[in-house]
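Incident log, structure service

09:12 report received: a user says their structure output differs between two submissions of the same chain.
09:20 pulled the input from the user's history:
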Amino acid sequence: MTNVKLWNNSYGITLIVFMSAKESDLKIQAQVILDAIAFTSFEQCQPLNRRFDNISRSPGIYAIRHKTERLLYIGKAQNLRSRFSGGHKAFL
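09:34 re-ran on a clean worker, output below:
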């Protein structure tokens, strides 16, 4: 089972998260993320709050995109919420 979630914030940052039950889905995950980055507008994303409490604690691959600029970062995390609540260099 796979799942894509999208959030945005007032600074023009979009966070795209792809969660999967299988580690073997990495190629598929990467393609889904790239498609989401390319074809999803900033306005279609859910609001991203400062506490990141609306992000899953699941493992997953994520991408961070600026509203008007470009892709800022692609990464993976064992706990997505912890990855962002602890700070992320893309938000500096």
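09:41 both user submissions now match this output. Likely a transient worker issue. Closing.
09:42 reviewer note: Residues 13-84 form one domain. The chain is about 20% helix and 35% strand.
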